[in-house]
Structures are given as C-alpha cells and as structure tokens.
Input
Amino acid sequence: MDSPAIARRHAHAFLLSASLKSTASDALHARIGDFLGFDTPPEATPPWQDFLHWCDATEARLTEHGEALFAVLYGTPLKPDRTLFEGARDALSRIAEERQAEWLALTQQEAGVAADNRPALNAIRYQKRRASEGYLLSELAAEGFLPGYGFPTGIVPLVTDSAMRPSRIEQQREDSHARSRDYPSRQLDIALFEYAPGTTLVLDGLVYTSAGITLNWHGPAKRRRGP
Output
C-alpha cells in the first residue's frame, strides 16, 4: 500500500476501535450525533473527546498497541509513532468542530422559526435528524477519517427536504450509500455542475430547482477533509 492517506485511514480505524473497546462502546451501531455529543449536557464528556484523551497518552498506547499498529502499517510509508496519534487527534477534532457548527446552525435556525410555521420547522427537524442519526462508521468514512472500502468520499448532497412529504422521507433507508444523509449526492467536481444554482433536476418523479450553495452552514467555508 503506497498511499499514505489510505494507510492513515486504516491506522485511524485501528486506533478508534481500540479506544472504543476500552470503554466497551458499540461502534457498529453508534450514531454520529451521540459520538459528537450534539445533545450532551455541558458537564458531560462526549465520546469523541474521550478518544482525544486516549490519544494523548501516546507512550502508553504505543506500548500497548505498537506491535499491532506495526502490523497494520506494514508495507506502507507510515510508521507507528507519535505523529500518527497526533494526526488522528487533529483530524477528528476538525470533523467534530465542523459537524458541531452545522448542528448549532440548524438549532439556531429552528429556534428562529415561529411555532406556527410547521412546514419550516419540519424541514429543519428532518435535517437535524439526518445530521445526528447517521451511523458513526459510515459518517467518518465519508469524512475521509476511516477507509471507505470503495465508497466515494468528498460527496456533496442536494438538500431536497420538503415538509409536505414526510412519508416519503420516512421511507428512506438511513444506511444508504447512494445518498448523503438520504439526500441525492454527487462527488464535488460533478456536484458543482449538476447542482449549480438555477439547475433543474427530476428526482423520484419530482422536479427540483437548486436555489443556492451552503458553505458548511456557516461562513467562511473550511476545508472539510484532510489527505
């Protein structure tokens, strides 16, 4: 394996697995919102920060897992050393910061909508649900933190929420790889063309017109993924 980026993702998978095992957490069924602490009380520590603290004890982790990490990275340009833990820590911190900013923006939008404006409230709540209930492993793979095993990364969704069709939204599969958070999606270079503002698309028999581009729900836009 000659790609440092792919090797790093496999190392991240090993480190995350070891960290979650130490707390008896169920990674397979974990949700991204729970892991990032979207609804965690201020006095509690969300799991992603537990991972950061786990990585901070680098020497102890290398003593405990160095041999297994060496096996994971054998034949790659990377070595099991302090920089590997620092890179994992920084990458997950960046993802958490951006996802929490998105969650905060949605929460603020929800708070600013009048209680009798049910269509707008429903649309925002569906977006919040999708932002929080995605499976942890698939969401981190989509962010480039974990290996994607052939599934594309750097994908951009076309947000098509409509409060007038909740039954259709409920029928969407939450683990679908064909969509990002159940929205139609394309890789960034294609999305810039197909989802450009003013473009008309037909999806599931309905016609949509792209109204604009959101930049991480906040400005300025940040780089979403590391190498």
Q: What stands out?
A: The longest strand covers residues 183-187. Residues 4-155 form one domain. DSSP finds nine helices and five strands in the chain. The CA atoms of residues 58 and 64 lie 10 Å apart.
